[in-house]
Amino acid sequence: MKREVVRAAWFLVLVLFACAVGRDSVAEDRGPFVTGFERFARYGELEQVNAGRLLISELSCVACHPSEDAQLAPKRGPDLDGAAIRLNQQWMQTYIAAPHSANPHTTMPDVLGNRSEVERQAIAKSIVAFLSTQQRPPDEVKGSGAVPVPHEFWKKGDPARGNVLYHQVGCVACHEADQEHAVASKSSPVDQLIAELDAEELAELGLSAAAREVPSVPLSDLSAKYSVTGLTHFLLDPHQFRKSSRMPALKLSPVEAADVASYLLRDQPIDQLELSEELKTEHSEEQIEVGLDEVETGKRWFVELSCVQCHSVDNLRPTARAKPLANLDLAARNRCWDSDARTVDYQLDADQVTALTEALRAEQTLNTPAEQFELLMLTFNCYACHERDGRGGVARFRRDHFETVAKVDLGDEGRLPPPLTGVGRKLQSAWLKNVLLGKKADVRPHMHIRMPIFHTELANRMPELFRVSDDERNQNEVAVLQAASDSVEAGRQLMDVGCVQCHLFGGSALPDVVGVDIRGIGGRVREEWFRDFLLNPSALKARTRMPSFFPDGISQRPDLLNGDVDRQIAAMWAYLNAKGEVELPERISEARARNFELRPTDKPIVLRTFMEEAGTHAIAVGFPQQVHFAFDAESMRLAVGWRGKFLDAQGTWFVRSAPPAEPLSNDVTLFAEAVAIAELNDMTRAWPQQLSNESTDNYNFTGYRLDATGVPTFLYRFKDVDIEDRIEPKEIDGVYELQRSLTLRNVSKNSDAKRMVMLAATGKRLSRVSDQSVKNETGLTTTLNDRQGTLRSSSGRDEWLVPIELESALTVELQYQW
Amino acid sequence: MVTLLMRNVYCCIVALFGVLALPDFAILCADENDYYRIVSVVVAKSSVNSRAENWTPLPDDLTLEVSGIAVLDDESVAVAIRKGEVWILDGVYDDPPKNVRFHRFASALHEPLGLLKVGDEFYSAQRSELTAMRDTDGDRIADEYRTVAKGWGVTGHYHEYAYGPKADGAGNLWITLNIGMGLAGTQLDRVVPNAPFGYKQGRWRGWGMQVKPDGSLVPVAAGMRSPSGLGANLAGDMFYTDQQGNWVATNSLHHLRPGVFYHHAEALASMNLPGSTINDVKEVPNGLPLADAMKKFPELKPPAVWFPYKKMGQSTTDIVLDASNGKFGPFHGQLFIGEFTQAAMQRVFLERIEGEYQGACFPFRSEFASAVLRLAQGTDGSMFVGLTNRGWSSLGTASHGLQRLVWTGKTPFEIQEMRARPSGFELVFTKPADRATASLPESYRMRSYTYLFHSTYGSDEIQLKNLPIKSATVSEDGLRVTLQVDGLRELFVHELTAHCVRDAVDKQPLLHADAYYTLNRIPKP
Question: CA B45, CA A512: separation in Å to the nearest integer?
Answer without folding.
Answer: 14
